[in-house]
Write a structure and sequence with these properties.
Its cofactor is [4Fe-4S] cluster. GO terms for molecular function: 4 iron, 4 sulfur cluster binding; 8-oxo-7,8-dihydroguanine DNA N-glycosylase activity; adenine/guanine mispair binding; metal ion binding; oxidized purine DNA binding; purine-specific mismatch base pair DNA N-glycosylase activity. Keywords: 4Fe-4S, DNA damage, DNA repair, Glycosidase, Hydrolase, Iron, Iron-sulfur, Metal-binding, Mitochondrion, Nucleus. The protein is α+β, with helices and mostly antiparallel strands. It folds into 2 domains: about 270 residues, Endonuclease III, domain 1, CATH 1.10.340.30; about 120 residues, Nucleoside Triphosphate Pyrophosphohydrolase, CATH 3.90.79.10. The protein is built from 16 helices and 7 strands. Strands 1, 2, 3, 4, 5, 6 and 7 form a 7-stranded mixed beta sheet that branches. Helix 2 runs antiparallel to helix 3, helix 10 packs across helix 11 and helix 10 crosses helix 12. About 0% of the residues have low confidence.
Length: about 425
């Protein structure tokens, strides 16, 4: 049987738990940021509209900073203020509004789930974390807990990146914080801690603490409202635990939450010893040849050809300039020829590789891909017939291009 964590890693003292809740909520009431989804959730009397508002914010905030999300959120809620409005939107409209926010499948799944609520659940949002996760595509354990606690008052915890960091420091959890067993322990802790009378505010307070005070580097421990409950802070102040552990201390080498013996406490890091994660795999390198095809439009303004990506996979359904993946370490002459061959599949006329003008390279970092776009341009004199059996395509002006559902990478191109 796996070793159980000793009491020093857990929140086993009811008096301490109550004090931590009170201190954290008092701080949150004084110091919370004024964010549009918080204001909407606090003032919206209709439970389903409140749940929808929180849901949109939580999906947008996945992997994206608050400052970036605010403008997108406001425009989204103005355009689709209800689930019913979103369910009637087209995927193209969703992609256009989402363009530049990244992780584009989030918007697609949000709309799919909205349609499911309208068509299969009579327009009524599920009310519990269990049902939200089970019934709504794209809603995982964290998002379900956030919606259920903030919108519907369910006393359930949440665990996201900020909460992981706070809990690992509060209880000196030094095992790999991305491992399933440690994540399960952190969920148990969050469910013990959550305030029963104000679960939504408590969960937001815990996340707010991680976002503004208990930050990854240079945390503001002096401003922390729960530092007296933080074992990492105590350890920073008073040094390593005594060589003879007390009854609540870990045993030697068999604690599932302690740092591994090969990575001892580094006194120079202080509380930032925690959390610890397994080393990330480096992103894989990819090269893509991209051609900006230009023609003179009927009103004299330049027009550019964009094509739609497949409906699944990276950047699904977005528009881009005609592109073709390249093998690594190809010489420029071979890259040109590959792109010319690809373009010929689109047009009923040959494309000479030497006619492609090299513009430069654009680097864009996705979460798991280091993408290099090798950019060429080609001016077309006269009309071009495109093969309708291939991906959808259209000619756009520069203004229309920026209003289309195109990725940040293509805007760089």
């Amino acid at each position: 049987a796996p070793a159980l964590p000793p009491a020093r890693h857990l929140f086993s003292d009811p008096a301490e738990v109550e004090a931590l809740r009170a201190n954290l909520l008092a701080w949150y009431d004084r110091c919370k940021r004024n964010l549009p989804w918080r204001a909407l959730a606090a003032t919206e009397p209709d439970a389903d509209r409140r749940g929808y508002a929180v849901w949109v914010s939580e999906i947008m905030l996945q992997q994206t900073q608050v400052a970036t999300v605010i403008d997108y959120y406001n425009r989204w809620m103005q355009k689709w203020p209800t689930l019913q409005a979103l369910a009637q939107a087209s995927l193209e409209e969703v992609n256009e509004l989402w363009a530049g926010l990244g992780y584009y499948s989030r918007g697609k799944r949000l709309q799919e789930a909205a349609r499911k609520v309208v068509s299969e659940l009579a327009g009524r949002m599920p009310r519990t974390a269990e049902d939200l996760q089970k019934l709504l595509p794209g809603v995982g354990r964290y998002t379900a807990g956030a919606i259920a606690s903030i919108s519907y008052g369910q006393a359930t915890g949440v665990v996201d990146g900020n909460v992981i960091r706070v809990l690992c420091r509060l209880r000196c959890v030094g095992a790999d914080s991305s491992s399933p067993s440690v994540i399960d322990q952190l969920w148990d802790m969050a469910n013990v801690l959550v305030d029963r009378s104000r679960p939504g505010d408590f969960n937001q307070a815990l996340m707010e603490l991680g976002a503004t005070v208990c930050v990854p580097k240079a945390p503001l421990c002096g401003q922390c409202p729960v530092k007296q409950h933080c074992q990492a802070w105590r350890r920073k102040l008073f040094g390593k635990p005594p060589p003879v552990p007390d009854v609540e201390d870990c045993g030697v080498g068999d604690c599932p939450l302690c740092p591994p013996a090969t990575e001892p406490w580094d006194s120079s890091l202080g509380v930032t010893n925690f959390p610890r994660k397994a080393a990330k795999k480096p992103p894989r390198a990819m090269r893509t040849a991209t051609c900006v095809l230009e023609r003179r439009g009927c009103h004299g303004a330049p027009e550019y050809l964009i094509v739609q990506r497949p409906s699944s996979g990276l950047l699904a359904g977005l528009w881009e300039f005609p592109s073709v993946p390249l093998a690594q370490d190809l010489k420029e002459e071979k890259e040109r020829q590959e792109l010319a061959d690809h373009l010929q599949a689109w047009m009923e006329q040959p494309v000479a590789a030497k006619g492609l003008q090299f513009i430069g390279e654009v680097i864009h970092i996705f979460s798991h891909i280091h993408q290099t776009y090798v950019v060429y341009s080609l001016y077309l004199d006269g009309d071009v017939t495109l093969d309708p059996a291939l991906s959808p395509s259209r000619w756009v002006t520069e203004e229309e291009f920026h209003a289309s559902a195109v990725s940040t990478a293509m805007k760089k191109v």
